[in-house]
Structures are given as structure tokens and as C-alpha cells.
Amino acid sequence: MLYGRAVEQAAIDELTSAARGGAGRALVLRGEAGAGKSALLDYAAAAPMRVLRATGAEPEADLAFAALHQLLLPATDLLDALPEPQRDAVRGALGLAAPPAEDARFLVSAGVLSLLAEAAADGGLLCLIDDFQWFDRASADAILFAVRRLHTHGVAVLIAVRDSAGPVVRDIPELRVGGLDEKSSSELLAGCSAAVPAAAVKERLVALTGGNPLALREAVGALTPDQLAGRVPLPDPLPVGAGVELFGRQVAELPESTRLVLLVAAAEGSGELGWVLGAAARLGNDSTASLEAAETAGLIIVEGSSVRFRHPLVRSAVYAAATFAQRQAVHAALAEALAEAGELDRQAWHRATATAGRDAQVADRLAEAGERARARGGFADAAAALARSAELTPEPPVRARRLTDAATAAWLGGLPGRAESCLAEARELTDDPCLLAELAQLHGRFELSSGDAAAAQRVFTEGAQRAKHADPARALQMLGDAAEAAANVGDVAATVQIGRFAESYQDTDPFLRAILVGMAAMHTGDAERGVPLLRGALAGTDGLGRADRLLWASVAAGELGEIDSAAEYIIRAGQVARVSGMTGQLPVVLEFVARAERISGRFALGAAISEEGLALARDAGYTNSTAAHLANLAVVAAVRGREADCERYAREALAIAIPHRVGLQASVAAYALGILDLGLGRFAAAHGRFGSMAGAGPGAGHPVTTLRSTPDRVEAAIGCGEPAAARTALEAYERWMANARTSESQALLARCRALVTEDAEEGLPLYEEALRLHAGDGGSPFEEARTSLLYGERLRRAHRGGDARLPLRTALETFQRLGAEPWAVRAHGELRAAGESAARHESDALSTLTPQELRIARLVADGVSNKEVAARLFLSPRTVEYHLYKVYPKLGVASRTELSRLVNAAQ
User: Fold this and answer.
1) CA-CA distance, 395 to 358, in Å (whole number)?
2) Which residues are CB-contacts of 305 (< 8 A; sequence separation ≥ 6)?
3) What distance in Å separates the CA atoms of residue 456 and residue 117, rounded to the nearest whole number?
4) 3-state secondary structure of 833
């Protein structure tokens, strides 16, 4: 019977009703122990739909995917409906098959999403999650990943979490479950006691318990008749506290044999009756009779093959009442029972808990459990196992190795604090130069991912110098990492120094060495040496199947000024990363892919990829990657004229990038504000922003962004009457582009030269040359349209309105197709001024798609099956089907063939 919970019940009814109607929703019930959260879950379980349920247990909080196994086991018959990579990852996580040989974090999470969607297909699904604060981290991460993406599926998720220990659950509505009011408390008391307390006693009980239902029930049950009648004062405070005291008194009154079997059940955690009975038997306990006594006392509930405590606080009371020696004996007995059952991970943890001091054999078993957790994608739980294994390890070198592995796992599991502490402890234990090099590289990568990019640069460079002779391969890798960090900071001098260090690595990774040395040469003006090195590295990239190599190829192309080629390499890297073992690093790869798509003029796709990357980066805790995606979204919003969105994204990106000294992301965010001004015709403001980028301060001083934005800077300078500034910028741009061979790079250079040519007639051939070059393969339609617009404007100002109409009309149509609204407005105005009164056309059909729909449509147009699309985008196949069901009528197509024809025509 629920008392005083009308608001909570209504919220639950709305949640389950929405799921039965096909709308996925989630709700967090947060409250103190005993507030009635579990009772509300029981209420929800009566909904007419399929129910999956899991309850967190403190003893299993470090056992990777234990809670997920409990939740999903009844639905594993649906696994074959999942895309193969997701299916294999989920089977591996649940211990049903060997885990895949790759970083499976996002694959497991996407697989959970797909499996829940399948389970909801027939009338909806309700997932009830209790004591979420004790879920193992791997299960919690996978469930929250799925919950945030359930909108198109009929899945309702109700999560109960305790106030004091509960994690922050981002982006999910919360409902506070507080104490009952006086009226509801009185009704509860009347229903749980044969002797109804006197009015004054009820009022006092409510005041002392705060209306906590559990405390009220337990307190009134512990009072004497005289206390209930008010003849004897109530104890103050009541012995309820967190509830442990009252249950502790009940436990203390039980026979010793019953207390022992309760302790076994409390230490075991999962509620598997066979394991509890087996361990108790090893302790000489007649557990069947003892369990019956505990059940009669109302402390446990035995159902079939499981035993569970009436309330988690009963478990806490039982465990707290035991001595250290009793706990050790129980955990040792459980380890034996679990070893016999083949439960190696559980056995390892119980053996470790039973061990005081260091024990090599116990440490080895726990380290093996940690490796198994890591292989399944349970990185946070692997970190806990490896760190505890290190504590138990007698030999300092082995302990240092395990702490290093724990640090890696903790970082991948989104626990940067634990990762740093493990690294620091490992450094104190070793003088092995190879291990120290690995520790330095890990430290640098932690900083580059979520910390200070300038600090990362220093850590990588110093670590590479120390490791050069002991581990030259890793040392060169670290120089590459240092170059990446320097690029993020915008430190040209560091890039030059890194290249000089790399020169001496004659026999180690010639591809990476050539790029590092070539970059340094280019930055010192030695193109005669730098260009052949970079061209030589690029010559061997056609057969590259590694995403990291393709990203380095994009760096080489960018150094040569070939922005379009750089973008092509990055897009290939993204395609490789989605189907390789780099899925765990996908948020970082997608930074580059989203930027490349945007530079290529595919703004909608660039925004869609950034939105995907942003969600994944936040899930993984990659702070600096979050800033990169926000900055890219700011640029796309600027091109589309969405001023408020642009400023919001830029502000959020700068709030991360400036304190973390990630100059690249800060400069991209600043560039977004400049291109916004330029598109809206605020030439002086745009000129000021682009000029600031070439100076110093937040968002400034990053050479790559400054050089890439030169065509924008030249246009802004000319637009506000600053031709001298435009010519100065062009001179730097010409030096950078001197070795660029691609048509797009030469087209942009010709356009800049046309802009600074004061004589109208002299500038026209340069615009015509630029348009001829734009017509080559691989160029950006946005940049080509901008050149057409500027050419048309110059023609009109030269009183050749008739000639101006075609390029202006072409520009207008392209801007409208790309959704570049401010530029379309400007082109339309110029076209009218040239004497054409053509009405504005509607944007093309693709512009009506959401980012998710656009990504799916493009993959389907490339011939990718629904299951493959789901695998690549970390979606469920039913999500793909749902979006395609909306895409077809939006685009006016009826088949995949028609969709492919339409999408490819719009490329």
C-alpha cells in the first residue's frame, strides 16, 4: 500500500503510458534510504508491458557488467537481431562469448540500446533499476548511454538512486522522493500497527523521522505499548539513523547460525541461493534452517533460487555487525564456492577481500579478472580490479605494471582522478625506462584529452627525450603526440623543435618521421626540404587502413596548403575508425571528420557528425574533444546565420578551450564569430575578429586557423575599406600556398588576388580563373558559390548587370541548397540589383532532414544496410528504420534507389 505518493504515481503512469505509445522516456527517483523508492518501482511493475529489472548490490559494485547481466539476461534471446559488432560486444560483456578484440565501450552501449529496442517492439518495455548507486560502472555507463537515445523507442526506464551515494545522472529528469506529510504518515502508521499510536505520539514520530516511511514502520514496530499510548516518552533521537540501528537490533536478537548465513548472503551480493548455501555449508552451517529463521523474522525473502534482503539497510546492518575475522572467513568460503561454480571474477574479488596483506597468487587472480573486464569494455571496473591487485602484489615492478594498466583502464573508463593517482603511484615504484616512457605517454594523453594541452606538449617532449635509447619506437610516437599537442596549442616553435628531435630517428617509423621533420622544415621556410618529405609520406597513403595514419596524412596535406586533400584523408579516417578497433577513440576522430565535412562545404553533415561526437565525448569524459565539437557547431551555425546558436556554442567552447590552453579550439570558436559577422555583412566587425586571430589572446595566435581563414580576412578587409590589410594578409597566404597543387587551394588564392585588385576589369580574369579551378573535383560548393557571388558583385559594379546575373543566380541556388541563409540573402539582393526580380527558391529537400536523418540517408544512399548503418552510428536497427520511415516522405522518394539518386545528385 502506497501512502501520499500521488505525484510520483502520476509521473510513473505517464512514463509507462508514453512507452506503450512508442515514446522512450526515463525518470530518476532520488531520495534517502527508506523513502519508498523500491515501493514505487513495485507499483510501476504492474504496468501492462514487458518488464526487465535489476538491483544494484554493494558487493558487486566493482564487478564489470554484473548489473547489466541481471537486467538483460531475460532478453538475450533477441541478441541475433542486433548488428554483428553490437551483438558480439554485448555477448562478450555478459560473459556469453569471448569479447571482441577491440575497444568495445561504445559497441556495448549501442548494443544495449538495440537490445532494449528489440525487447520493446511488442507493446513496450519497462526497465526498473533499483539502488543505482551500487551499479558497477560499466553497467551504469551502458545503461545511461542507451537511456539518452531511447526517444524513438517504446522503452520506459525508471531509476531509483539513493541521495547520499547516488551518482549524477546527466540529462535525465529527476523526481525527488521525500518524506510523507503528516496526514499520509498517520495513514501509514494506522496501517502497520495493531495498536494505533496516540495523536501526540504520531506527531512526534513524524517529526523525528521526517516522514520517512521505512523509519516510521520500523520505529512504531519497536515501541512498547506504553510508548505508543503516550504514557512513556519516546526516546530522542529514535534509534533509526540511516535505518541500520533498528535492523541491527533485530539481527542481534537472532541465533548465531542465522546471523552467519545472513552474513554470507550480505557478502555474496547477487542473491544466488546456491552460492549462499554452498559457502555457508563450508562454514559448517545448516543454512536451510537458518534462512528459514531469518525469513520468519522478516529480514529476507527467498524466492525460487534467489534470496534477497527486505531492504538494502538490512544487508548493511548485517555486514556492519560482523567482526573483521568473521567477514574474512565468509569471503573465503564464498571464494571456494564460486571457484567450484566457475565464477572466476567473483571468486577473485572475494578472495581479495578475504586477504590481509600482500599475496602474489591472490593478486594474480584479481589481475586476470581485471583483464577480462577490460577486454569486455568494462574499463572503470577493470581499473578497480587492477588497482586492488596492485595493492596485493608483493613485487614492486609487477605492482608498477598493474598500476599502469589500472591508470589506462581508469582513463578509458572516465575516471581521470583515479587514473592520475595510479600513474603517480606507479612512477614511485619503478626505474624501468620503458615503463617510465609508457607512464609519460599516458600522462600526456590524459592531459591532451581532458586537461592542459600545453602541459601535454611538455610531458610528451620530455618523455620522448628520456625514452629515446630505451624505447625509440615509443619515443617517436611521443614526438608525434607532442606535435599534435603543439598543433592544438598553436606553438610553431615547439613544432620546429619536435621535428629537429625526430631527425635522429633514422630506423623508426619513416612515415611519421618524414611528416614531423617535413612540418618543421616548412615552418622554418625550408620548403625545398620540407615539400619532398611531405610528398613522399603522402605517396604511400593510398593503401593505409589505419585511422591514425590517415589523420597524419591529413596533417601533411594541410602543411602543403591543400586543405581539400586534408579533408579527404580525414573523412577516410572516420570511415576506418567506425569499423576498426578505434571505436573507443571515435569522439576524437570525429572532431577531425566533422571539421573536414564542414570545410568541404557539407555543413549539415558536419553538424550532424559534431552532434554525434559531442554526445560521445561527453559520455567518455573527453573534455577537449567536447570543445572541438562545440567550436565546429559554432562555425556551422554562423554560416547558416543562426546568431544565437553560434554565440552559445562559441561561448561554451571557449569556456573549455581557454583554461585548457587548447588554442586550436579557441581559434575555431573565434573564427565562428568572425564568419558570422562576415555573412551578415558586418565587415568591420569581421575584420576586427580575423585581425585579432592573427594577434595574441584567447582564440588568437593559432597559425593554421589564421592561415585557413585568410580568404575570409581578405574579403572582410576589402569590405570595410582596408585594402592595405588585405594585401598584407594575402602575402602570408601566398607563402603558405606556394607548394599547394590542388585546384581548390589555387582557386582560393586566385579569389584573394582578385579581391585586392583595385581595377574592376583587371580583377575579372582572376575571378574567372578561380571559378575554372573550383570546377575541379573535390572542391567546396560553398567556396565556389562565394567566388561566384564576388564575381557577380564585381561585374555589377562594372556596370555589366546582364553578365552578373548568371554567377549571382548560381551562387544564390548553392547557398540556398547548403542552408547558408545570410549568404543567400546577400546573393538575392545583388541579383535584384543586377536587374533580375527572381523570387527566392525554397531550400532543397535534404535541408529538411534532421542531422540524424541526414547521416542515415547518406549511408543508405551509399548502399549500406540498415544493420550496418546502426553499427556505424551506434544506433539500434529500429532507430534506423524509424528515421528512414520519416526520411522517405520528406524527400518524396519511395525506395532506396530513389534515395540514393537524390542524395548523390545533391553531393
Assistant:
1) 9
2) 272, 273, 274
3) 41
4) helix
- What percent of the chain shows pLDDT beyond 90? 53
For residue range 350-376, list pLDDT tens digits in order: 999 999 899 999 999 999 999 999 888
Residue with cell 505509445: 21
CATH code, residues 846-905: 1.10.10.10
The predicted-structure confidence for 737-776, as pLDDT tens digits, reads as follows 888 888 888 999 999 999 999 887 889 999 999 999 998 7
How many residues does this entry show for the chain?
907
Q: Which residue has the cell 575584420?
A: 687
Nearest CA-CA partner of 562 in 744, 293, 357: 744
Task: Give the amino acid at 626.
Answer: T
Residue 907 class from Cβ within 10 Å (0-12 exposed, 13-18 middle, 19+ buried)? exposed
Give the model's confidence band at 862: pLDDT under 50 very low, under 70 low, under 90 confident, else very high: confident
Which CATH code for domain 5-176?
A: 3.40.50.300
Instruction: Calculate the dihedral angle through the C-alpha atoms of 43, 47, 52, 53, rounding to the nearest 10 degrees.
Output: 0
Q: What is residue 742's three-state secondary structure?
A: coil
For residue 719, what is its C-alpha cell? 569590405
Topology, domain 746-834: 1.25.40
Give the integer Cα–Cα distance in Å for 366 and 347.
9
Per-residue pLDDT averaged across 653-678, rounded? Answer: 92
Which positions ≥6 away from 1 have C-beta within 8 Å?
A: 191
- Burial class of residue 249 (count of CB atoms within 10 Å of its CB; 0-12, 13-18, 19+): middle
DSSP symbol at 680? T
**Look-up: residue for cell 555457508?**
280
| Contact (CB, 8 A) for 129 and 37 | no
What is the C-alpha to C-alpha distance for residues 790 and 808, in angstroms, rounded to an integer?
Answer: 8
Q: Please choose, from the candidates 417, 374, 424, the residue with its C-alpha nearest in 3D space to the C-alpha of residue 403.
A: 424
Of 35, 51, 47, 44, the C-alpha closest to 3 is: 35
Residue type, 811: A
Determine the 3-state secondary structure of 508 from DSSP: coil
Q: 515, 675, 489, 657: which is closest to 599 by C-alpha?
A: 675
Name the pTM for this structure. Answer: 0.80
Distance CA 634, CA 666 (A): 11
Number of neighbours of residue 358 by Cβ within 10 angstroms: 14
Cell numbers at residue 9, please?
504515481
For 301, phi then psi, to 5°, come to -130, 125
- Interior CA angle at 857 toward 853 and 858, to 5°? 120
For residue 587, what is the enclosing H or E element?
Answer: helix 586-599
User: Could you report the per-residue pLDDT of 467-497, keeping only the tens digit for each?
Assistant: 999 999 999 999 999 999 998 888 889 999 9
Please give the distance of CA 479 from its chain centroid, rounded to a whole number. 27
Beta bridge partners of 302: 307
Edge-first strand listing for the sheet containing 125-130: 50-55, 125-130, 155-162, 25-31, 174-176
Mean pLDDT of 857-873: 88
Under 8 Å between Cβ of 392 and 428: no
- The DSSP line for 394-443 is -SHHHHHHHHHHHHHHHHHTT-HHHHHHHHHHHHHH---HHHHHHHHHHH
